[in-house]
Structure formats: C-alpha cells, structure tokens
Write a structure and sequence with these properties.
Blueprint lengths: L2 E4 L6 E5 L4 H18 L4 H17 L1 H12 L3 H25 L3 E2 L8 E9 L2 E5 L7 H13 L2 E5 L5 H13 L7 E3 L4 H8 L4 E7 L2 H13 L3 E5 L5 E4 L5 H13 L11 E5 H16 L19 H16 L3 E4 L14 E4 L16 E7 L2 H9 L7 E4 L3 H8 L8 E2 L18 E2 L4 H5 L3 E9 L6
Parallel strand pairs: 5-6, 5-8, 6-7, 8-9, 10-11, 10-15, 11-14, 13-14, 15-16
Antiparallel strand pairs: 1-2, 3-4, 4-18, 9-17, 12-13
Helix pairs in contact: 2-4, 2-5, 3-4, 3-6, 4-5, 9-10
Amino acid sequence: MGYATINPYTGEVIKTFPDATDAEVTDAISQAHNAFLAWKETPFSTRGAILQKAATLLRQHKEEMARLLTLEMGKLVAEARAEVELSAQIFEYYVKHAEGLLAPETLPVANPKEATAQIVHEPLGVLLAIEPWNFPYYQIARIIAPQLSAGNTILLKHASNVPQSAARFEKLMHDAGLPKGAFTNLYATRKHIEMILNDPRVQGVALTGSEGAGATVAQQAALALKKSTLELGGADAFVVLKDAELEKTVKWAVFGRHWNGGQVCVSSKRMIIEDAVYDAFLDRYTQGVAALRTGDPLDENTTLAPLSSQQAADEVRQKIQLAVSHGATALEVGPKVPTQGAFVQPTILTDITPDNPAYHMEFFGPVSMLFRAKDEDDAVRIANDSPFGLGGSVFTRNGKHGAEVAARLSTGMVYVNHPTRVKADLPFGGIRRSGYGRELTGLGIKEFVNHKLISVVDIDAEF
C-alpha cells in the first residue's frame, strides 16, 4: 500500500510508514470488540463529554492540525483551518443531539389495550471505516462522531498519502478520553480489508472513495453478510437559469469548482447554462478562473492548491487530452501554473457531446465542463444525464421556482443559489454510481444500529 507523506508542493518524501501486519490487525479487531462491550453500555452523557473534549482540542490545536493537512495533501491552509473547525462542529452536533436522535420510538398499534410496540436503536459493534485523502479529518469525523455516539467502535483504514493525519486524529481521540480500542488507526493493506470484514466481530463498513474501490468493498461486505454504506464519485450539475444574478452566480461557480483544488466529490463539475445567458456567463467565469493564483498552499495569498500528488495531476491531464481527442474544446485559463508542485492548469472544456467519453466522467481537479442548454427543460435533461447522483445546484432569482427545478434533479442533495454544501447539521449522500446510504444528522447515526422491535402483549391476546 505504501503509506507515506509526500509534500504535493515540493515532491519531498517526508516520512514513510510500514504496513500493518496480520497480527496487528487481528489484535486491533480484538481490542475494538472488547471496547465495544463496555462502550455500548456507556451513558450518552459520557460519550458526549468525550466528543466535546475532542471538539475543544481540535480548536486548541487548529493551526498545528491544519498545517499537517497542507503538508500531506496540499490543501490551502485557510481551507485546512476550516476543515478542522467543521470537524469540531460535527462532534458538537452529536453531543447535543445523539441521545434524542436515538430515543426509543413508540409505534401506533391497532389495539393499544392489547399490546404496545416500541423501536429501540442499539449499536451493532465494530465497524470498518475506509476514508479518502481529500478531507483527511472531516471524513473521519463524519463517520466516528455519529457511530461512537451510537455506541459502536471503529477501525480506520485511511488513504495511504495521509498517514500522519490519520495518526493525529487517533491521538486526538485518545487525548479526549476515548477508551483504548474504541477508535483505532490501521495502516492496513487491501488484503486486510477482506480479512477484517470476514471477522464475525465486525458488523459493517463505511467507505468513501472511488467507484472501483466501492464496488470491491461492497462485494466483500456482501459475501460476509455485512452492511455497507458507500459515498463515491460525483459530477454535480451547476444549473444557471436565465434569470440568475449573474455576477454572484459566477463567483459561486468559480469557488464551487475550485475549492480544495477541485478535488471534491460535490464540487460544481458540470455547469449547465441557459442559452440566453451562456455567453455572458462564460466570459465572466473565464475572468474569475483566471484570477486564481497558484503557489505555496501555506501562503495565505494562494487561492488554487496543487493536486494531492503528481499522479493525480497526470491523470487529470490525460482526461483532458481524451476529451479533446473526441472533439471537446479545451481553454487553458490564467497565468501558467508553477513547474514545482502537482499543479494542473485551470481548464474550461466546451463542445462536449454525449458520445465523448468525458461527458460522463468525473474530473478531480481544476477542470470545468460547460454545457449550453436551450431552455430550462433542456438544462434539467442535461443535469440528469449522468451516471452520478450526489449533489447539485440551481441558480435563479426566484427561490420558489428554483426549488421546483431542484425537485426535478435526480440526485441526493440539491441547493438553490449555492454550490453543494458540507455542513455539520445536514445529511450527506447520493444515488446511482455516487453510492448509497447517508452520513451525518439522524440519517447517519441510524445507518449502523439495530432498529429492534420490543412489543409487550397481553398474555390472553389472540395470535
């Protein structure tokens, strides 16, 4: 697997880490299971106090933890600080709401004098979390905050290029008072994933990653009869209706596509603009992208980060070439990017037809696909013509009508007059090849619990 910190800006190998051994993985499962037996009986108040301490520690060490993100995957330091804060907010959401979200539910029954019925939500046990590199802390918080709150314990297999971020978050939780084994970072290999899922003490897996990884892990989980949730790729539509406030819409478009270096599953990858405002949008958008500035991601003046690795940058360039070879027009925008660092020149792709392989691709970098829609119905058609279904947005001066258009988009999340957001108090997830299941809010905390029916029946009742 090759766990290593390689600075995306300098290319320097900072530190390498050995893969976990079979014995280490087996021991981690045992510790997680033993921790679960006690943790599931731990009161919500105690669980919440630990999560609150973790949130406090995140804020106390914000600068140190943010710089580690920038070192390992090239995130702009300002965005790294925001990720640390978002992680703290996720913890605090469950501190406040976990007990209420998991409160027993009384069911209406035909004859309440004969029987009562109640649903209780009980933790399942040890879970495996497989997480990606683009949001090293947020992705961890998004799964462990709800699942620890529910009484489960977690084994983490993080991306191989953010090993220090993974270890730092494990230390954070230990410092917050989490019992040993309740959350363990493992430098696991691919063979260990199947090994973990086949262990009867492990009850499920949550994966955020590529379609290929998701399909493989889902199959392994299914063979082991374990539940899985998947958050995979996305190609979010950014629909611009003819009455949109163009200047503000363009600013959101530039941000929505290029934050985190364009390496976001819910970034605004497909911009679909009504014909009446297409040319004006393209002109303003080109100017906005050209104003982005590449450079050292630790420099507060840098506004466009390098990609996470040279390999990632090469892959994006190959996809651009593929699109052009099948008829697309590629416009490189802005000053030439530095030769140092895993940068990709910001590129706008137009003239992408449905027979172009790029039409249904996800570009994980600063590449924008623009589509001219004849009218609103055509914009909806183009937006829905995608194998993905994660997020999306609609821009219009008429919020009520925007919501009506949003209802027509086939996706897990839609925002009116804003790119797809990532918030502590909103659910996250998609459909089709973007995966299944939800994370965060009440939907997320109930993904890995046993919804158990308890019914008290009059002994003289008929069967």
